[in-house]
């Protein structure tokens, strides 16, 4: 799951394009402290901004730049500053001064100290991890045990291993840790050496198995100019839409030489990291919107539609919501969220999907599995609010929370789940996954599931058809 959501961290500052009328620039100047996220935003002379990650023992400059980069994402209501980040709105309150830690010089030696870095990590977890109770975590004991594994001469590799192990013990479905290149190379080498011999069975990637399934299940292929979405006729009355991912739709003009050097996905990530993030997320939404225009034009006459996200590991919630908007005739609240900080939570935040003209309102069947993760789960939970949608397959992976991205003093990046993502009734599906209306009981293990489908594609299609018939009965 961490591999599938790596790119989410990299586009943490992605901001939606549609914004409200802006407040006077002068009113935005000063220091703003976030509610529930451990961030401080400083705006100076309406020309520059600085963004800090803070804990009780640290203040780390995360990002700075020209104010115009974030200006359109901000608005003020009464005494609160609102920052729109993806589908979530973060709140900030004015503070007179920066914490002393933000103006205190930290030596290079201390920044590199594994013990200090672990303490900063631990403070972040204690303050923001949302699922201590759900996962029966005794944080005091876990913290003590993990810290004792780092001696006075601990190395970066040992620090990485201890943090990684801590995240695993927290059972955080959306946790992520990214070290510097040197440490990462050493970790990769260790992992390679420790790998045991694998069973001699075929292995499939997400995109590969999705392609195999779509090719078999489509009686009439209609796909045009898209490798991420395939569509056409499942049978004479039912359309089929295979959505492979909730990102990679943006037209980024990636240099061919970079693609040859790094491969398409890594080149894509490197390219959007050089962009203004707001422009990047807008391009993602524009890209998937263009594809969905063609999809819905081709399939609008079908009596029902199947949307297959069984092999979709996630991406951007904004992409998921753009796709679902094609099936929503009126603005709809589809989920709620709240953020963990200290011993409390932020007020509950409603999430909405706007309407689309000529929305498709006939029956829609969404196929999910335990490999349906991250933004594809946002897609699934949002569908629970849609009366014309039923879900078939197995519950999703249960990695619902939007992660909180943070920076360590040594420059490493990590994230933890600080959000409880709920349906409109306040139900949380972390670990459990979004339920289905018709259970097909897929194997839980990734490759076992992929092989079960690939080895009998005819049976997979038959089971889907039988599930739809069962759901159509009064």
From TrEMBL:
Keyword Hydrolase: yes
Residue intervals of the Tail specific protease domain: 251-441
UniProt cross-references to CDD domains, sorted A to Z: Peptidase_S41_IRBP
GO molecular function: hydrolase activity
Coiled coil: none
Class in the EC hierarchy, top level: hydrolase
Entry EC no(s): 3.4.-.-
Superkingdom of the organism of origin: Bacteria
Sorted UniProt keywords: Hydrolase
InterPro entries: ClpP/crotonase-like_dom_sf, Tail-specific_protease, Tricorn_C1
Gene3D superfamilies registered for this protein in UniProt: 2-enoyl-CoA Hydratase, Chain A, domain 1, 3.30.750.44
Entries under PANTHER family matching the protein: INTERPHOTORECEPTOR RETINOID-BINDING PROTEIN, RETINOL-BINDING PROTEIN 3
Name of the protein in question: S41 family peptidase
Organism: Aquimarina hainanensis
């Amino acid at each position: 799951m961490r591999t599938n959501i790596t790119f989410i961290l990299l586009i943490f500052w992605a901001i939606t394009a549609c914004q409200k009328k802006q407040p006077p620039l002068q009113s935005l100047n000063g220091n703003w402290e976030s509610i529930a996220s451990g961030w401080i935003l400083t705006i100076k002379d309406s020309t520059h901004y600085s963004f800090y990650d803070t804990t009780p023992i640290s203040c780390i400059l995360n990002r700075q730049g020209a104010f115009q980069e974030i200006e359109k994402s901000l608005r003020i209501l009464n005494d609160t500053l609102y920052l729109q980040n993806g589908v979530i709105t973060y709140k900030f309150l004015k503070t007179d001064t920066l914490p002393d830690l933000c103006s205190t010089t930290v030596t290079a030696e201390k920044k590199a100290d594994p013990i200090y870095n672990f303490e900063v990590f631990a403070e972040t977890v204690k303050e923001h991890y949302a699922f201590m109770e759900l996962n029966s975590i005794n944080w005091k004991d876990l913290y003590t045990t993990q810290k004792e594994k780092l001696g006075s001469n601990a190395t970066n590799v040992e620090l990485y291993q201890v943090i990684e192990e801590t995240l695993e013990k927290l059972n955080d479905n959306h946790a992520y840790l990214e070290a510097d290149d040197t440490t990462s190379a050493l970790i990769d080498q260790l992992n390679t050496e420790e790998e045991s011999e694998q069973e001699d069975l075929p292995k499939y990637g997400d995109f590969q198995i999705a392609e195999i399934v779509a090719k078999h299940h489509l009686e009439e292929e209609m796909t045009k100019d898209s490798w991420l979405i395939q569509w056409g006729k499942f049978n004479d009355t039912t359309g089929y839409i295979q959505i492979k991912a909730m990102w990679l739709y943006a037209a980024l003009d990636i240099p061919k030489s970079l693609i040859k050097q790094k491969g398409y996905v890594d080149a894509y990530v490197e390219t959007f990291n050089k962009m203004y993030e707001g422009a990047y997320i807008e391009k993602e939404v524009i890209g998937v919107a263009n594809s969905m225009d063609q999809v819905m034009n081709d399939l609008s006459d079908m009596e029902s539609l199947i949307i297959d996200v069984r092999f979709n590991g996630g991406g951007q919630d904004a992409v998921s919501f753009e796709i679902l908007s094609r099936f929503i005739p009126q603005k709809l609240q589809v989920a709620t969220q709240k953020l963990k900080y200290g011993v409390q939570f932020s007020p509950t935040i409603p999430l909405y999907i706007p309407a689309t003209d000529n929305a498709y309102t006939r029956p829609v069947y969404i196929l999910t599995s335990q490999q349906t993760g991250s933004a594809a789960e946002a897609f699934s939970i949002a569908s629970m609010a849609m009366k014309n949608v039923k879900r078939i397959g197995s519950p999703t992976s249960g990695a619902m929370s939007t992660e909180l991205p943070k920076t360590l003093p040594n420059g490493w990046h990590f994230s933890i789940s600080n959000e409880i993502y709920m349906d409109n009734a306040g139900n949380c599906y972390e670990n459990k996954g979004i339920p289905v209306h018709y259970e097909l009981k897929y194997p839980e293990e990734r490759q076992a599931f992929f092989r079960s489908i690939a080895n009998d594609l005819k049976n997979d299609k038959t089971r889907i058809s039988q599930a739809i018939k069962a759901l159509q009965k009064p």
